[in-house]
Amino acid sequence: MSKRLLNLDTMTESIFGMQQYQSQNSSQMDTEYRRMLKVLTKAMQGELTKRQYDCMYAYYFENKTQAQIAKELGIGAPTVNKHMKKAKERLFKVMRYSFQRLE
To answer: How far is CA 14 from CA 19, 50, 74, 84, in A?
Structure first.
């Protein structure tokens, strides 16, 4: 489980620049960070297309490269990159709506 959380942390940093939440130890920040991760995971499951979800999951949770993902899905690496970019944009919109101060 810790490996998965670490990768989810990496994804949140990548999408939202949320490093400040990891570096602070206050229980309020920890609680809010966990809430953000919960919203992010639900958003991944509910807001992304299957292909976007597959690309994001493989990259952040399975530590696969975009080239590996492309080969497994039978698509080009630029297409994987496009799916991930669109997924990040979509997730950012959801997170921005849920957490107004991310703007």
So the answer is: 9, 20, 25, 11
